Amino acid sequence: MRPHLAGGLAWLLQHGPAGRRSLAKASGLGEIVVRQEVERLGRLGLVEIDRRGTRLTARGREEFSPILARVKGMRELQLRGLALDRFTLGALIAGVGREGSGPTWRLRDLAVREGASGAILITQADGALRFSDSGEPVGARNPEDARLLYENFPGLEEGDLLVLVSAAGRGAAYLGLWRIILELVGWPQAG
């Protein structure tokens, strides 16, 4: 059982039904992996499946609401200096900040266990994007990437955290990103 996979699929399903193929394409995961997880979520009563696709049930929306409320956005990013591999996915998490993120190395290791090449955590603090481990402004080392992050996540506020996960493939980046997200905001109740 991988709750971070469930959380990532709930993120994709929050705005309405989707088919297994579109879920697989959006996540970069194989259709078999998606089908198995959707079936498991169905047995738990968190999703329902019909001819229009898979959708969150009322119980599913309730179970995943603490996670979905905290993730303000997720994007594939085309960064230069901060990209650690072919694919980089980023997520904006509300109100985690520097203190709430824990040791960066521990969170990076969680992503690597899912197949990612690495992860970078960046917080919005004192009016600037800062590396969460050192507090150094991102713009001091990577001004173009800092600009791209602001463009891709226009809703950044003080105390928000950007999680960037890179991998050779989209699926590994997706799993690594969601593993970190659920570590930061909590596990779904229904595991």
Structure keywords:
five-stranded antiparallel beta sheet, Arc Repressor Mutant, subunit A, Gyrase A, domain 2, globular, 9 helices, alpha+beta
Structure in words:
The protein has 191 residues and is α+β, with helices and mostly antiparallel strands. It has 2 domains: 3-68, Arc Repressor Mutant, subunit A, CATH 1.10.10.10; 71-185, Gyrase A, domain 2. The protein has 9 helices and 7 strands, in the order H-H-H-E-E-H-E-E-H-H-E-E-H-H-E-H. It has helices spanning 3-13, 20-27, 31-43, 58-70, 97-100, 104-113, 138-141, 143-152, 170-185; strands at residues 47-50, 53-56, 71-77, 87-93, 118-125, 128-131, 161-167.
Silhouette: globular
Strand content: 15-25%
Distance between the termini: 7 Å
C-alpha-based Rg, rounded? 16 Å
CATH superfamily of the largest domain: GAD-like domain
CATH secondary-structure class of the largest domain: Alpha Beta
Overall domain count: 2
Widest sheet, order of strands: 3-4-7-5-6
Q: Helicity range of the residues?
A: 40-55%
Query: What count of helical segments does DSSP give?
Result: 9
Largest sheet: 5 strands, antiparallel
> Which residue ranges are poorly predicted, with pLDDT under 50 across at least 5 consecutive positions?
none
Based on the coordinates given, report the CATH architecture of the largest domain: 2-Layer Sandwich
Helix/strand order, N-terminal first: HHHEEHEEHHEEHHEH
- CATH domain topology of the largest domain: Gyrase A, domain 2
Q: Quote the average pLDDT.
A: 92
Question: How many β strands by DSSP?
Answer: 7
